[in-house]
Amino acid sequence: MSETARNIVAIDGPAGAGKSTIARKVAEKLGYAFLDTGAMYRAATWRAMHLGIDLDDPAALAESTAAMVLDLREENGNQIVRVDGHDVTEAIRSPEVTRNIHKLDRSRGVRDRLVELQRTIGSRGPTVAEGRDIGTVVFPAAVCKVYLDASLQERARRRAEEFAKKGIHVNEGALAEEIRVRDEKDMTREIAPLRRAEDATVVDTTSMTPDEVVDVIVTLARFSC
Known about the structure:
Layout: H1 3-6, E1 8-12, H2 19-30, E2 33-36, H3 37-50, H4 58-67, E3 70-75, E4 78-83, E5 86-87, H5 95-105, H6 108-122, E6 127-131, H7 134-138, E7 144-149, H8 152-165, H9 172-188, E8 201-204, H10 210-224
Parallel strand pairs: 1-6, 1-7, 2-6, 7-8
Antiparallel strand pairs: 3-4, 4-5
Helix pairs in contact: 2-10, 3-5, 4-6, 8-9
């Protein structure tokens, strides 16, 4: 078993399952680095939109992603995302980016580049990585794999709450439909579809508090790693 595989906690799951929040807290408790791969796809999406690149042109999206200068770092307990020197931490979480991110998910060139970056980051030391293909594609040999899930209604409620905290008010019913469509696209895409790794532990967070979920994963990680 490689040292990288031993030191990776892979957390996958659909939109709104709480992956980013949970993964960050798990990383803090374990003293591991935190890798938000979703932020990487969002950053690549923001860059393409910012530059007016055709989002239906996979080759152009791949070229844009390859040229992207991405900086992810933790500052005062928060993840700061910079693209080509621009702080896009808040911008990449906008509804517009969320609606278009799936177009980059289906570009093999985009995925190949970002997976390469993710593996490089993971090789630097113990890491908690979250996304949609971490345990199946990015780090398939990871010994600690978790698949976070929650009901569609609960995931929509959480996302609506996140937007509300930023002063963005959305229709929860419409948001639930957007998430349902996103789930379908993620699970049926040709390249690295969202699915539970066979050796992953499923954690349904619908009726759990974040701290309860964190405790479960930390226990699993300490036992596995």
